[in-house]
Each structure stands twice: as structure tokens, then as C-alpha cells.
Amino acid sequence: MIQGGKVVRGPVAIASGGGGQETPEGTFRVYLKDKDHKSNEFMMPNGQPAPMPDSVFWGPGGIAFHSGDPNKASAGCVHLSPADAAAWFASLQMGDEVQVHGNGTPGTTTTPPR
Predict the structure, then answer these.
(1) 8, 106 in Cβ contact below 8 A?
(2) CA 75, CA 65: separation in Å to the nearest integer?
(3) Taking the model in full, what pTM does it have?
(4) Residue 112 near residue 13 (C-beta atoms within 8 A)
(5) How far is Cα 111 from Cα 91, in angstroms, rounded to an integer?
(6) Alpha carbons 23 and 60: distance in angstroms, whole number
(7) String of DSSP letters for 56-97
(8) Cα–Cα distance between 23 and 42 in angstroms, integer?
(9) What single DSSP character describes residue 17?
């Protein structure tokens, strides 16, 4: 995270989308936050909606930063560790600008948004 023009948390490990489900790149704005979001698109093996804790939505079609395995590619979202996802959820506010560039392969590091 950047506070007062200084990076106070980051870079952090991430995984973005791949295999035809790449994470969109560009400049976006946060339009929704959901602490306990459940996916309407992906199900767990038991048939329940997949959890997406600490979701911060910014991209078209429900693309978000959220807690997930930073060593496993997503279906377009950006996976963050639970601690990093919680920090970004607390820091990012509705309407904040996020910039997404250079899709990360699993284990990539990135500097958090401002």
C-alpha cells in the first residue's frame, strides 16, 4: 500500500488469470467491496459457491483482488495471500483508482495500488 507517497506494504506475491482467462490490464476504479463474497461462477467440489474473501471489485465481469492462492492462476481475478487481501480490502475505497499492468504468472510480485 502507498501512504503519504511511500510504499508501506509491498511488493506482494500475486497470481493473475491465464489460459484464456487473462486478467484485464489498464486503469480501473473500485466499484464494489464484499468482505465475504461467494462466486456465482465457480463452485467447490462439494457444489457450494467458491469463497472469495476480501473481494475488491474493479474490472469488467466481476474481476477483483481477493484472497486466494498466489501460486495458482485465477480465472481473471488477482489472487493475494489472506493477509495481503485483508490489507488491500481495508485500504482501497469505493472509487479508488487501480492500475493493472503486466499479467503476473503465479508467484509474481506486485506493488499494491495507491
Answers:
(1) no
(2) 12
(3) 0.83
(4) no
(5) 14
(6) 10
(7) EEEETTTEEEEES-TTS-BSSSEEE-HHHHHHHHHH--TT-E
(8) 16
(9) B
* pLDDT tens-digit readout, 42-88: 888 999 999 999 999 999 989 999 999 988 888 899 999 999 999 99
Name the nearest CA neighbour of 12 among 24, 23, 2.
2
Cell numbers linked to 93:
475505497
Give CA angle at 79 (51, 57), nearest 5°. Answer: 70
User: What is the per-residue pLDDT across 29-52, written as a single tens digit (0 to 9) for each?
Assistant: 999 999 999 998 888 899 999 999
Degrees to nearest 5, angle at CA 110 with 13 and 64: 80
